[in-house]
Amino acid sequence: MEDNVYVTPSNIKDALVEAGITLLEETGSPDLGLREIARRAGVSHGAPRRWFPTHKALLAAIAAAGLRDLEAELHSDRTDPVEQILAFADAYIDFAVRRPAMFTLMFRHDLLEGSGADLREVSRPLFIRLVTLIERLESDHDATLSAAALWSGLHGIAVLAPTGALGLTVPDFDSRTLIRHMVSTELD
């Protein structure tokens, strides 16, 4: 944190989450230490325990911030439901490629389980948005099942694309082409 920023009791919790986000983005690893987060937030190494009962609770707060960031990026001005689904998919993949460490943490349930935070409450609106878009297609598909299938495929692309793994198996790999193929296959 900058020297001219003073941490007060009213903003310690936010300062810890922001410091955690910065550390996560810098290191690229979800293995974030409480002491380093506290140091970067400009508070004592014991301060995180006052605001977050466990290390996992702080990690969950950082992940929840990432989920809110992703949710904010998923808005589209397009009116056609298929185009909105494609925009959703593009934004999801773009977020994963641009912020891989945050994306990884958001779905590391082994790190976040038992944190006491309700990440489901934060992540569920993302899924509901996809279900709603599919329902607008007025097809015979089960919208929830189709959304789950699309989300699973998107998540697979999001995990594999940044590492170059799909490029090894699919010549001239392009995530947008694969997304469009997946959407048209699932929703036709």
UniProtKB/TrEMBL annotation:
<feature type="domain" description="HTH tetR-type">
    <location>
        <begin position="10"/>
        <end position="70"/>
    </location>
</feature>
<keyword id="KW-0238">DNA-binding</keyword>
<protein>
    <submittedName>
        <fullName>WHG domain-containing protein</fullName>
    </submittedName>
</protein>
<dbReference type="InterPro" id="IPR001647">
    <property type="entry name" value="HTH_TetR"/>
</dbReference>
<dbReference type="GO" id="GO:0000976">
    <property type="term" value="F:transcription cis-regulatory region binding"/>
</dbReference>
<dbReference type="InterPro" id="IPR009057">
    <property type="entry name" value="Homeodomain-like_sf"/>
</dbReference>
<dbReference type="InterPro" id="IPR036271">
    <property type="entry name" value="Tet_transcr_reg_TetR-rel_C_sf"/>
</dbReference>
<dbReference type="GO" id="GO:0003700">
    <property type="term" value="F:DNA-binding transcription factor activity"/>
</dbReference>
<dbReference type="Pfam" id="PF13305">
    <property type="entry name" value="TetR_C_33"/>
</dbReference>
<dbReference type="InterPro" id="IPR025996">
    <property type="entry name" value="MT1864/Rv1816-like_C"/>
</dbReference>
<keyword id="KW-0804">Transcription</keyword>
<feature type="DNA-binding region" description="H-T-H motif">
    <location>
        <begin position="33"/>
        <end position="52"/>
    </location>
</feature>
<dbReference type="InterPro" id="IPR050109">
    <property type="entry name" value="HTH-type_TetR-like_transc_reg"/>
</dbReference>
<keyword id="KW-0805">Transcription regulation</keyword>
